[in-house]
Amino acid sequence: MIQSSELILNPDGSVYHLNLKPEHIARDIIFVGDQNRVEKITQFFDSIEFSTQKREFKTQTGIFKGKRITVMSTGIGPDNIDIVMNELDALVNIDLETRKPKENLTSLNIIRIGTSGSLHADIPVDSFVMAKFGLGLDNMLRSYLIDEISNPAMEDAFIKHTNWDLKKGKPYVIACSSALEKKIESHQIHKGITATAGGFYGPQGRILRLNIQDETLNNKMDTFNFEGTRITNLEMETGAIYGLSLLLGHQALSMNAIIANRASGTFSEDPYKAVDALIAYTLDKLAEN
């Protein structure tokens, strides 16, 4: 039995941080970072059956073209993903009354919708990027046993290319769900590696008043290429989502609307339109079958 100190429940029986019970979530789940983006997605729903919010974790479940879908804000960063993924899994794969794992496990479909900047001139603003791999620079996932799910060849190549300082921890690489990749992909979508940083400023090369360990890291990431696959963008969630999903038996995919291009110095004339287009595209793909 899982002790109450390990799996914390609220007085009403909901999981502690998300404030959810098993009946509140669908098997198809869309992640967004910003709580205000939840309703930008559910505004397209035919109906909404459930809504709740605790801290930055806002959840709405409803029906879109006959498909039951949950939309959830995760907040920012791998630490929040650790909370969200473990509590979502508990909702479907742990009996919250007996506190024992279920014999028959449920696999969730999780798609992250975000915004990002492109690192390459040939990935223009207003385009979509699918993360074929998540490259974790955050070190959170190393608290788990990930050797059997990671890609050591790509990890070692990245470490060598960037002269990575292992005092920061060893980067990890996790592949996306091949099933969701096939379901969501089209010839118009760019694919690559999405790097996941553990912070917004220093970990992503931003310098305000503090010097950082490697001022040239972003430039080295721009030129990294592993068997024809490049790093397309940098954010703070994908690697953690991919790793925990694979460990727990769920399917995960990360999609980004490109609103800036660092190589060409351009910014989308209407970034909200680009995000809405990605939302509509993803919802239609999820509802197909």
Short description:
This protein has about 290 residues and is α/β, with parallel strands linked by helices. The protein contains seven helices and 14 strands. It starts with about 25 loop residues before the first strand and ends with a helix.
Notes on the protein architecture:
This protein is α/β, with parallel strands linked by helices and 289 residues long. It has helices spanning 38-42, 78-93, 152-162, 178-184, 217-222, 238-248, 271-287; strands at residues 28-32, 47-54, 57-64, 67-73, 94-95, 100-101, 109-118, 128-136, 172-175, 190-196, 225-226, 229-235, 251-261, 266-267. Strands 1, 2, 3, 4, 7, 8, 9, 10, 11, 12, 13 and 14 form a twelve-stranded mixed β-sheet that branches. Strands 5-6 form a two-stranded antiparallel sheet. The longest helix is centred in the C-terminal third of the chain and has 17 residues, at 271-287. The protein has a single domain, classed as Rossmann fold (3-Layer(aba) Sandwich).
Q: What is the CATH first-level class name?
A: Alpha Beta
Task: Give the helix tally.
Answer: 7
Q: Tell me the fraction of residues in β-strands, as a range.
A: 25-35%
Write down the overall geometry: globular
Average pLDDT score? 94
Quickly give the structural class: alpha/beta
Please indicate the count of domains. 1
Strand and helix map with partners:
Blueprint: E1 28-32, H1 38-42, E2 47-54, E3 57-64, E4 67-73, H2 78-93, E5 94-95, E6 100-101, E7 109-118, E8 128-136, H3 152-162, E9 172-175, H4 178-184, E10 190-196, H5 217-222, E11 225-226, E12 229-235, H6 238-248, E13 251-261, E14 266-267, H7 271-287
Parallel strand pairs: 1-4, 1-7, 7-13, 8-10, 10-12
Antiparallel strand pairs: 2-3, 3-4, 5-6, 8-9, 8-13, 11-12, 13-14
Helix pairs in contact: 2-6
